[in-house]
Design brief:
Blueprint: H1 3-25, H2 29-55, H3 59-91
Helix pairs in contact: 1-2, 2-3
Amino acid sequence: MSAAVWTLVWLAVALELAGCLGLLVARSVFDRLHFVSAVATVGPFAVATAILLEEGWTTAGIDALVASVLLLILSATATHATARVAHLRLHGSRGRPRPARGER
């Protein structure tokens, strides 16, 4: 394996660990979503690039690239949907805070 491949793999590992650490120390659901979305996109893209460098434009390299692009697109969509639901649960459907359970 070349130095570039090892660098990309270790960069992916470091990014994943940093994202997990950020997930542990984040305070709100939106901060946690920020770290989860970064972990789900940047690390796999670095690994896919390493596979593409190592294997070339073979089936394995192209599959890794397609998987990382799908993760990039689907992760953003899932993060947006989760943030929308969290916002609706926190603030209600019209942007005003929901009353407490016994207050209506």
